[in-house]
Design a protein that fits this description.
The complex is a heterodimer. Chain A is built from 10 helices and 8 strands. Chain A is of the alpha+beta class. In chain B, helix 2 packs across helix 12. The longest helix of chain B has 29 residues. The chains are: A alpha+beta, B alpha+beta.
Chain lengths: ~300, ~350
């Protein structure tokens, strides 16, 4: 009860004498910048994906980098037509031929065989646009239908009945999906750096927060003396001062946070008259940093309240 | 008298000065980092493509990776201009092992299955000369099996023009950007040939001319100070807004130094009171403390600059490319001024209160 009375007395006095201003300045940089940096409009919400004609593309990867990936591998092999033998890298894909050939614009819906070959355009023309070729891979040969040609320098062998160990993947993804993933990765990298910067700033600001809290305690010296005179023990006085600092600090942190949100939205409303900007929104990843900022202030408060009873 | 007071405070409060220098150094370093990193965003394409000086001719588009300029058109416009060197580049985004990279044409004679890899990319992909990489075209959806024939500078892959054009899916003769090098006078003539009015030409460092077609045989040209600026403008983002934002963040991160200045004055109050009792005037005490503040701020700023240039604790990377933080003296001077003004403001207020 004694602590409660002391805390309320100190709080009222601190608020009446505007002692929170010092705390406000000390938390302004880490909290306000946290809110501003984490409320910047998301780049991925810009409508640039519509600028690209959406089309599915193939890409080779060591991992399953997309929702639709097929086992694949590249081996050195040779193709034989009539009497000529040509060495070429062969990209083997274990997939339904219709699916992969469709992406290359070769599927006509009448591919009934389980395997097809797509030849590099120059080779396809040089060997007289054959409909069947023999492909030799690791001393095993097989005859495959030719689905057509493509601009690549590799022979593509799409087969649904594969006899080889394939440890890589050929993935399919839409261009807009790739672009969106890329932009999201850029944004997350930027935010990760911002997160680390704000974290270090919060830690570097500890002496500033300590100085601000100590200043508040010293400004409350008269009130503390009154509390001692009315019989508050030294121990309770220390706890009351610490609690007052913590309460005041938390109020100030959330006030600055709210101020930051208002500032961001005001700046956005003004700027939106000049440029087209996506809507800003405070990202949830800012919350752990905000709580850390509160925790740091709470940890500093007992240090700032040290020795209050010795002054009196 | 002020100098005596300055010496007294400096010698009797060494630990306090050291503490202030340390805190100010760290805060100032963070401010420089924020300014440097945000500013480096404005030089993304210059960094990736290794474009530093000269006149760049490109066309309006989503990015320099998608813009196309017809070589014949530029050659006919520049045919009458001598004493210039013109380099044509075609660039295209490609996917290698699921990651996004830039493939650029090179004048080096390479066979059609060869690719040169930037040292950082080679490290990232774990490839050396003689290894193969599988490059996928974002435009044609085709997959190319290429041999690493050597290394190149910058965060790019390089291949022969014919191969890059095939991967990009364009007919021969199209390029992404053209670099014109020559004297200022020659560059002015190039700009005039492109259709820029003589009064609009301001040559300094890098100049980017973006062409956009407005009719059958008519083009409009807009000049920019940087390649990145030319393309972010298309999204409504102005270079200056980003710069103002960077400066605001940098200065705002220093705001707490007022409190540090007040605290410094409070901690030296006993020395100040003694000096006041022995007859040092208020004015001299204020002068001595401000001199001390100037010393502390300057030392801290020098340390923070050393930290900024030598320690790469904060790095900003986009798709593996690590941004190079610039050294912009006028912006750095702003951090020093902010540091000096805010710390000394706190100090002056504190001394005024303590001496009273």
């Amino acid at each position: 009860m004694e602590i409660l009375v002391a805390v309320s007395t100190l709080l009222v006095s601190a608020i009446r004498r505007s002692l929170y201003t010092t705390l406000l300045i000390s938390t302004l940089a880490p909290v306000l910048l946290l809110v501003v940096l984490f409320s910047t409009p998301s780049i991925s919400s810009l409508e640039y994906t519509s600028l690209m004609q959406d089309k599915q593309v193939l890409f080779f990867s060591n991992t399953r980098s997309s929702e639709e990936c097929y086992s694949a591998g590249i081996v050195e092999g040779s193709i034989m037509v009539n009497s000529s033998v040509l060495r070429a890298p062969i990209l083997i894909v274990s997939a339904n031929p219709d699916r992969v050939l469709g992406v290359l614009g070769l599927a006509r819906g009448n591919y009934t065989a389980s395997s097809y070959v797509v030849l590099p355009r120059d080779i396809y023309s040089d060997i007289g646009k054959p409909s069947l070729v023999v492909v030799r891979l690791n001393n095993a040969t097989g005859e495959y239908s030719v689905a057509g040609s493509w601009g690549s320098n590799t022979v593509l062998l799409v087969t649904s009945s594969v006899n080889y160990h394939l440890d890589k993947y050929l993935c399919l993804a839409s261009r807009s999906r790739i672009l969106l993933d890329t932009v999201e990765s850029i944004e997350s990298n930027l935010l990760r750096t911002a997160e680390l910067w704000v974290l270090v700033l919060s830690i570097v600001y500890l002496p500033v927060i300590y100085a601000a809290q100590r200043r508040v305690v010293e400004s409350l010296r008269v009130d503390l003396r009154v509390l001692v005179n009315i019989g508050v023990s030294a121990r309770n006085l220390y706890f009351s001062t610490t609690t007052t600092l913590i309460v005041l600090y938390i109020i100030v942190v959330f006030y600055v946070c709210a101020l930051g949100v208002v500032l961001v939205y005001t700046a956005w409303s003004v700027l939106s008259y000049i440029v087209v900007l996506p809507y800003p929104a405070l990202r949830l990843s800012a919350i752990p940093l905000l709580l850390l900022e509160v925790l740091l202030g709470v940890l500093v408060a007992p240090l700032a309240s040290r020795g209050v009873s010795k002054w009196l | 008298m002020a100098l005596v007071a300055y010496k007294v405070v400096l010698t009797t409060r060494k630990h306090l000065v050291a503490y202030a220098v340390l805190t100010l150094t760290l805060v100032s370093w963070l401010s420089l980092v924020a300014l440097g990193l945000l500013n480096s965003l404005l030089w993304l394409y210059e960094g990736v493509l290794g474009v530093e000086e000269g006149l760049i001719i490109t066309s309006k588009g989503f990015s320099p990776l998608t813009a196309l300029v017809y070589r014949g058109d530029i050659e006919s416009r520049l045919s009458s201009i001598t004493d210039i060197t013109v380099e044509y580049y075609l660039v295209t985004p490609v996917l290698v092992n699921g990651g996004f990279f830039v493939l650029r044409s090179t004048s080096v004679n390479l066979n059609s299955s060869c690719v040169l890899v930037g040292a950082d990319i080679a490290r990232q992909l774990g490839v050396t000369i003689g290894d193969h990489v599988v490059v996928s075209s974002v435009f044609t959806g085709e997959v190319y099996y290429l041999e690493v024939c050597g290394y190149t500078t910058g965060y790019v892959l390089e291949a022969s023009y014919d191969l890059v054009a095939r991967i990009r899916g364009v007919t021969k003769g199209y390029y992404s950007y053209i670099v014109v090098k020559g004297s200022s006078e020659a560059q002015s003539r190039v700009l005039e040939a492109l259709g820029v009015k003589p009064g609009e030409i301001r040559l300094a460092g890098l100049i980017v001319a973006v062409l956009s077609r407005i009719g059958d045989n008519k083009t409009r040209v807009v000049l920019y100070r940087a390649l990145t600026e030319a393309y972010i403008t298309g999204f409504g983002l102005q270079r200056d807004y980003i710069l103002y934002f960077a400066v605001t963040v940098a200065v705002a991160s220093l705001i707490g130094l007022v409190i540090l200045g007040l605290d410094f004055a409070r901690r030296t109050s006993s020395s100040l009171r003694v000096l006041r009792v022995i007859g040092v005037s208020k004015r001299h005490l204020l002068l001595a403390t401000l001199l001390l503040g100037l010393t502390v701020s300057t030392i801290a700023y020098v340390f923070s600059l050393a930290l900024y240039t030598r320690v790469e604790f904060f790095t900003l990377s986009v798709l593996g490319y690590v941004f190079k933080t610039g050294r912009h003296s006028e912006l750095f001077l702003l951090v020093y001024l902010g540091l000096l003004v805010l710390f000394n403001l706190g100090l002056a207020l504190g001394v005024h209160r303590e001496v009273e």
